[in-house]
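Researcher: Please translate sequence to structure tokens.
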Amino acid sequence: MCQTSKIIGNDLYAPSKSEKARSYYNDGHNAMENRNYRKAIEFYKLAITEDPGYIDAYDNLALAYRQFNMLDSAACYNLISIKKFPKGTVARRNQAIVEEKRGQTDKAIAYLKEALEIDNKDPETYYGLMREYSIQKNFTEALVNGNKAEKYYSERNDPNIGDCYLMLCIINLFLNNKDQAKHYAQLAQNKGVKLDQAILDALK
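Model: Translation complete:
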């Protein structure tokens, strides 16, 4: 039940007015794409130096630190992002993953619920809640949030719906809803998601 880390593009919040900051940011973005996270950290820090209000740079800097499992550094920049841009949801979702890695799923859920107060139609937030409740083995609540994630992914024609289908398949297996599990397994496969052998065996 992995959650994909997403690199944030230039236009999520507001592109920096500083051409130099945007250049450093784009260099960081390219480094992230190539999984050169150490270099990405350097570029994002340079972007922030040029424009201390560059929210996307803070968010991606936190993400880059998380790739090294440097959770304190990731949390630091997530929290700076939240303070500078209180209406942002990305830093809250990213901080939820940090808290999950720290074993603090209740805190993760709290950050995700804060994100929902800002945008209650964001499939990524519902996906995150589905994930956290699944970790807590609260599969009933996980299903509720998973169904909402599916709805909003579908409305957006979002390709990440395949991962959502896989999670819903697993949750329904835990809830002994094998017919529903098979339904979501087929939907996941239709989206190119590969099911591991343990899931295939459980669906028999």
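Researcher: Any highlights?
Model: The chain has two domains: 19-120, 125-204.
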